[in-house]
Amino acid sequence: MSHAPGLSLVIDTDTASDDAIALLIAVRTPGVTVKAVTVVAGNVPLPLAVRNAIVTLDLVGGAHVPVHAGLAGPLLRPLETAQYVHGDDGMGGATLPDPSRVADAEHAVDVIRRIAHDEPGRHTLVTLGPLSNVATALLIEPDLLSRFRHTYLMAGAFDGVGNVHPLGEFNVWADPEAAAIVVDAPGDKTFIGWDISRRYSVMTPDDQSRLAALAPLGQFAVDINAKVNEYVAEHGLAGFDLPDPIAMAVAIDPTIMTKSQAALISIGTDPVSRGGTIVDHRFERGAPNARIAVVVDESRFKAMLFAACAD
Ligand code: BDR
Ligand code: CA
């Protein structure tokens, strides 16, 4: 594994089942510090997402990590959750302990801004949910992302195949106006889309057995994805996929992303294009505003996951 020395992450998450595994990987990968977890509504309503983040951190050795609640819904639209994918509780109906604490008092938007200000260039931002918190911070402070070392986003569908809309991947679709603000903000950013998840992070029955054998954390990872596993079976995947964990893995070790490309991305916000991440392929296009992951090494991603779940 080759991650930047002293890698320190700020993680923005709408914590449900796959976000939880991304938190597990971040907390349990040697040499990675999780500076703060900021929570946004998305997969589940905000209070549930906060609860799931705290319960997960308790279980994976991250009880010391500050957790801050942020926006309870998108900038301009009503919240539409993905509980039909992740279960009513967002955690597949798994039996889990109660959270050890409530969220810290400071608002997520203030935390993201404060950390970026206190130590510019020091921390890496990883977003795993709708971009409402980050966009709000950017409305206050347009150069915010330039103060992070890099921003990695689980967002988009760069093959044009959405998961909740013909073009739209959930995190972009849920708050497309927020995504439009983020994609045009200055600062280095890499998008890891649902196309990457579908191709390189599907947990086959064999993978799931191997993971469950790594009890208790591997079993936790399997249990909380029970509902996703049922859902994807009806949609042609060989097992649950892990969009947020594979994005986290790229953030921790960008060398597992074996191919990427600079792209000029715009975001669909009208009913037909909602949530689409539209790449301008014209010869005389404008300057790129992001990188997108094209190929990720599946076996290295899974090795990172298994190592994080092992004792
Ligand atoms: C994204 O949406 C959510 O269902 C997952 O947590 C992930 O962040 C995938 O489209
Ligand atoms: Ca998520």
Describe this structure in words.
With about 300 residues, the chain is α/β, with parallel strands linked by helices. The chain has one domain (about 5-310): Ribonucleoside hydrolase-like (Inosine-uridine Nucleoside N-ribohydrolase, Chain A, Alpha-Beta Complex). The chain is about 35% helix and about 15% strand. The protein is built from 13 helices and ten strands. It has helices spanning about 15-30, 45-60, 85, 110-120, 130-140, 170-175, 175-185, 195-200, 205-210, 215-225, 225-235, 245-250, 300-310; strands spanning about 10-15, 35-40, 65-70, 125, 150-155, 190, 255-265, 265, 275-280, 290-295. The chain has an eight-stranded mixed sheet, with helices on both faces. It is globular, with a radius of gyration of 17 Å. The relative contact order is 0.16. The chain binds beta-D-ribofuranose (BDR) and calcium ion.
Architecture (CATH level 2) name: Alpha-Beta Complex
In which order are the strands of the major sheet placed?
Answer: 3-2-1-4-5-6-10-7
Helix content: 25-40%
Quote the CATH topology: Inosine-uridine Nucleoside N-ribohydrolase, Chain A
Q: What's the main sheet like?
A: 8 strands, mixed
What CATH first level would be assigned? Alpha Beta
